[in-house]
Amino acid sequence: MAKSQTSSKKELKNVILAAYMDTVLEQETHPKSVYKFCKTSKIEEHSFYEHFNSMDAVAASVWSTFHENTLNTLEKSKEFGGFSNREKVLTYLFTFFENLTLNRSYVAFVLSEVHSNWNELRVLKSLRTHYKDFIEGLIADENEQKSSGIFKYNKQFFSEAAWAQFLVLLKFYLNDDSKGFEKTDVFIEKSVNTVFDVFDNTPLESALDLGKFLFKESFSS
Length: 221
Fold this sequence. Notes:
Layout: H1 2-27, H2 34-41, H3 45-48, H4 55-75, H5 85-102, H6 104-112, H7 125-144, H8 155-174, H9 182-199, H10 204-219
Helix pairs in contact: 1-4, 4-5, 4-7, 5-9, 7-8, 8-9, 9-10
């Protein structure tokens, strides 16, 4: 019974999220009134408030759900647990951006509204917390294997750096006009490898490789 109720609540949450995304795309604006949204979407208002306290909370939850779906996919993989941290981050990002592509129209609409500081975008704040937790978990596992504190990474510093890198990837993806977003896949691989090579104190070759790629993408017509 408990499992059935939990499943039912999760399904309703997904219904609300799907209805919200459809409304945004159809009306080309974010719904501001919970009452109007529920009436149009045929969702009981009291049921809405069992999951969210505002429309802004729904907007943020869309991005958190992209993260949750990504982790759920990774957890189903028997190989993922044995991956190195580099491989785990790459696999996470490839999977996450595949999820974005499944919802490309919505993602492009939301991100196209950003004109200045992406780090201040409210809709991404929950995702920021989840992604940093994911990175910090990987760093904590890595630190446990190091015998001396001198060689241990600062979790907060590197998770912030990883988030900054994540925003750069989002910006690149938004402007990627390549078939199947192949350039984004290349950018993900090069940028992640560069970061991990920096960790390993062998950054030059990968940094030059990434720099050449960015130069080419910035100035090619």
